């Protein structure tokens, strides 16, 4: 099956640019344009609108995007299955992940995986909970590393519990603490992860009815650490994020104890590619 027109559609939608898509795929810009026009004629729909800022999906284009993405992914899975049966071990694996997992876990997992499957190409995208769940739903990634909260509708493979820690500046008033009571966050100047990035911290505050004085919000965990180190407030972050930052801030377990469960979400193991299922095995072996 010739899927080139669908691959071009997806790449232009991703890049919002015909010229960038052409460069990425090795086509001329006019070739990209002609292919999209033929696809629009076949469907009798306008899929993109163009202006001086680029090419953007119309409402019709947004409606068909997940279906075209599934077609391309199913073909990739079929190719991998056939190749696996021939013992070729080739294909592409797309992974969605937190940046902390891509830094702490993935290099080690990939290193072992590539020793046995050197011909499988691996691409990963970093984001928060909502990003990763959206990528899985629209088949932009084969699997996602994230926390277990709100993964309904996907298969879940638990890997490891990750404690949530208080993040405090190196000040005398905190140095004699062995743990940090959650109720002490009430009315304290607080720096919080942006909602949709790390939902577990928001959930913990809601469960224990804690109401800090939220003065700052940031999507990047390491920005939060730097702000705490500068005395701009206090925060809560997962231990996996903080393993390399203990020298610049004080980190303490929460009281009562709080954690997030990290694992892998996939749309369906029945529909997953052989490469994805094999990679999950390697991830479990490394982490669990």
Describe, in plain words, how this protein is organized in 3D:
The protein is an alpha/beta fold and 288 residues long. Among the domains are: 1-68, Arc Repressor Mutant, subunit A (Orthogonal Bundle); 162-259, Periplasmic binding protein-like II (D-Maltodextrin-Binding Protein, domain 2), CATH 3.40.190. It is 44% helix and 25% strand. The chain is built from twelve helices and twelve strands. Strands 3, 4, 5, 6, 7, 10, 11 and 12 form an eight-stranded mixed beta sheet that branches. A two-stranded antiparallel sheet has the order 1-2. Strands 8-9 form a two-stranded parallel ribbon. Helix 1 (4-15) crosses helix 2 and helix 1 crosses helix 4. The protein is globular.
Helix content: 40-55%
SSE pattern: HHHEEHEHHEHEEHEEHEHEHEEH
CATH class of the domain at 162-259: Alpha Beta
Compute the average pLDDT: 90
Q: What is the distance, rounded to the nearest whole angstrom, between the alpha carbons of the first and last residues?
A: 40 Å
Q: What is the CATH homology-level superfamily of the domain at 162-259?
A: Periplasmic binding protein-like II
What is the CATH architecture term of the domain at 162-259?
A: 3-Layer(aba) Sandwich
Radius of gyration: 22 Å
Report the biggest beta sheet as strand number plus sense, adding barrel if it closes: 8 strands, mixed
Low confidence ranges: none
Number of DSSP E strands: 12
| Mass-distribution shape | globular
How many helical stretches? 12
Structural class: alpha/beta
Question: How much beta, percentage-wise?
Answer: 25-35%
CATH topology of the domain at 162-259: D-Maltodextrin-Binding Protein, domain 2
């Amino acid at each position: 099956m010739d899927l080139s027109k669908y691959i071009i559609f997806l790449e232009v939608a991703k890049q919002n640019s015909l010229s960038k898509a052409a460069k990425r795929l090795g086509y001329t810009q006019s070739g990209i344009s002609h292919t999209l026009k033929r696809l629009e004629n076949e469907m009798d729909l306008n899929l993109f609108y163009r202006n001086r800022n680029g090419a953007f999906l119309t409402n019709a284009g947004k409606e068909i995007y997940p279906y075209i993405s599934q077609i391309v992914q199913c073909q990739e899975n079929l190719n991998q299955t056939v190749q696996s049966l021939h013992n070729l071990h080739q294909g592409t694996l797309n992974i969605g992940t937190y940046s902390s997992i891509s830094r702490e876990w993935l290099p080690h997992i990939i290193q072992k995986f590539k020793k046995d499957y050197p011909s499988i190409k691996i691409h990963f995208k970093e984001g928060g909970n909502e990003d990763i769940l959206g990528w899985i739903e629209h088949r932009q990634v084969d699997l996602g590393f994230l926390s277990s909260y709100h993964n309904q509708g996907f298969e879940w493979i638990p890997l490891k519990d990750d404690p949530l820690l208080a993040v405090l500046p190196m000040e005398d008033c905190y140095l004699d603490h062995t743990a940090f009571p959650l109720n002490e966050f009430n009315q304290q100047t607080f720096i919080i992860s942006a909602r949709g990035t790390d939902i577990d911290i928001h959930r913990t505050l809601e469960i224990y009815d804690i109401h800090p004085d939220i003065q700052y919000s940031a999507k990047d965990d390491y920005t939060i650490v730097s702000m705490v180190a500068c005395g701009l407030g206090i925060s809560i972050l997962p231990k996996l994020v903080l393993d390399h930052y203990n020298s610049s801030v004080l980190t303490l377990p929460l009281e009562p104890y709080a954690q997030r469960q990290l694992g892998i979400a996939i749309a369906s193991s029945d529909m997953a590619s052989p490469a994805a299922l094999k990679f999950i095995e390697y991830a479990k072996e490394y982490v669990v």
